[in-house]
Write a structure and sequence with these properties.
There is one protein chain. The chain has 11 helices and 11 strands. The chain is an alpha/beta fold and 335 residues long. The strands form 3 sheets. The chain has a 6-stranded parallel beta sheet with strand order 8-7-9-10-6-11, sandwiched between helices. Strands 1-3-2 form a 3-stranded antiparallel beta sheet. A two-stranded antiparallel ribbon has the order 4-5.
Amino acid sequence: MPTGTLPPADAGSPDHVLELPDNFLLIDLCGQYDQNLTAIESALGVQILRRGNRLEVLGEDAARAQAIEVLRGLYQRLEAGRTLEPGDIDRALRMGPDEGAIQPGDQKELFKGATGDRVEIKTRKKLVEPRTDAQKAYVRALFENELAFGIGPAGTGKTYLAVAVAVNHFIQGNVDRIILSRPAVEAGEKLGYLPGDMKDKVDPYMQPLYDALNDFFPAKQVAKLIEEKRIEIAPLAFMRGRTLSRAAVVLDEAQNATTMQMKMFLTRLGEGSRMVVTGDRTQIDLPRGVNSGLWDAERLLKNIPKISFNYFTSKDVVRHPLVAAIIEAYEADQT
């Protein structure tokens, strides 16, 4: 058997023992202070014992088998020269090992869309991978449709993935600019009460979009692209009267757009552009009696071909585990 290759499951070891030939990769697999193993133990209710280059998994048969499968998949990921972060552990636990994992030396290009069962988004700073089945379907829809909607609770990656796909289109040369927008509507505070000029007033409302961009581009490059107008971050009201051609456009917090604002925004779509609309129907901050444009868009457009609607639930939350529990508690109270 070639050095560095993970032996098959039936290579003579007990079915609860995983023998890993590369000690350096084993260290990466376990993580600092064995934090990766601890995360798997906690999620699956197993115990993982590390003895030399062997990992022994103790627990119920089904949980033990799943843990072995997850560990094997993560080790193969490291063999392929890819990094292993906490998000990758979470993804493997939710979705199982990577499908069609790239082997060492494989030069398959990562993304001009989804290839096979594997879905990844290439940006300048990192490679982004969906962590749930709903996220995976959403990313595919973003690449396959010129207009896509992502609807669901906070923390499900709707905006983050939309911005990642926009960045991918930009660096691949499919679009000439990125335009990110949000309605300047928040609960309890108005723009006019904030100090400074218009940019100073608006920027706090746009900060989540800046945060996402800085995760995919070096900070200096973000500043340069904004200065060159190749990236625009602006309130929804600033979209009026424009035609957005060859642009990747993301509207975030769309539940706070009125029906007329939503119609205005959607009709900005120009030749060669891609548009994504994200929102959470449970967090509408519009004045009482004002209809959300997101509701109307969903009702009017869901049967039009080439417009996709993807939905998320609390099970797709990829922030702190307490966020999912909080969302579920509020959802239960509304039923």
